[in-house]
Model the fold of this input.
Amino acid sequence: MVRLLLYMYVRTNIEQDETTPSGAIGGQAPDFESFFSSEYERLARFLVLVIGDVHEAEDVAQEAMVRLLEQWKRQTGIRDPRAYLYKTALNLHGRRRRRSALARRAMQRITWGVPDNQAIDSRAEVLAALEALSPNDRAAVMLVVWLGLPSKEAGDLLGIKDSSIRSRVHRARKVLRVQLDMEASE
Done:
């Protein structure tokens, strides 16, 4: 279904943009629709082997195709669209992997303060605990604990002193401990 929607998006954008001259991209046929039809399946299979998850591989393949389409429409003179496509897909996968690792580490940092190092059973509990925070405290926690920014940088981003950031993070950790302790005991 998603692939069909992406195909329709690509087709609509190609039909709307009839200004692409022949040979616009590295001597390749300027018809993105035919390039998409011939390369999408191969790219998706390649990414399944690299990533190991069919759904994640399809997401990455679709995003890579959309980015190639944007370059195709700009007529940037890509010499080898296939190489550009695969390089883009691998870069997207790497970026997603890094963000996922950062999120896992941040979840560990948030749950670190739970008494007796009890593990949080679900992500939903942590999100519910974060929602209990005031928007200001939540922003401070997300910047300092989740993203790992120093309190000085977080303060600059929020337009407050770094001592205020430290105070907000301290207050938020107390609330999170209480919230997560209550949910763990239920």
The chain has two domains: 2-98, 112-185.
